[in-house]
Amino acid sequence: MNQEMISASLWYYDDEYTYETGKKILNVLEKQMFFQPTLFYAEKLTKNKLEKYTIESKEKYYKAFTDKNIQGIVFADPDPSSRTPYWSVDFTFPPSKEFLGFEPVIHPKNLIILQANLEMFKDEVFMDEFMDTVRALIGIVAPFYGIIDSSKNESRLLEEANEEYFKPDEYIQTIFGGNYFGKKYCDLYGHEKVLDVPVENKESINGGILFMLSSNLLKFADDTTDAKRRKVMQYLKIRKKRRFKLTSNLRLHYWTLALVVASLRA
Q: What pTM value is reported for the model?
């Protein structure tokens, strides 16, 4: 049975993928007590499957991080009683120009997801380590946007906002339990305005603002947090996306217009 997860997702721009950046990220992870991976994945370097984590996995990680043709890396410690890990760190990289054979038309974004099952967050030491890791990763990769929330709550909030999937590089869709506005969105809303967002838990990191609706990650979906969410959304003027429904009259107009265009082409 799948267990609910709490995750931190950090979207950032980088098309260099240097050894130095990869080393800084792994150094941060290795300082945490929870980081004792038993499984590792790095596409072709692990024959496209999870393999047992060994001393050689570290070198494979560096090779994968700097290889622009590899789009996924995973460190994980699985829970044998379920189909989910105790925790995992997932890297997703966009297809490179070399992989595609042409220059991407949009600025490619990278994604790091640090996640763990809900039970682990009942340990305050782990919760502090989790947040320390998030702060350190922000300090390294300078995300343009990031969120922290449970998988269940993420789905609920996107549905309430009439959104089908994440669009992190387009606009702010809603406010999650934890939010990081990098330079992109601090410039859009105004750095001082984001810094003054009406919540108690907020801090400046690497040119952006990290703000939390609650210091307790297990309370991201309660009534108090939802009230704070509404207040922040009103403050930043983030509105629910409108669903456009085609009425019968509009449908008639559309097909009439289509017929007119077709007749003019005839």
A: 0.87
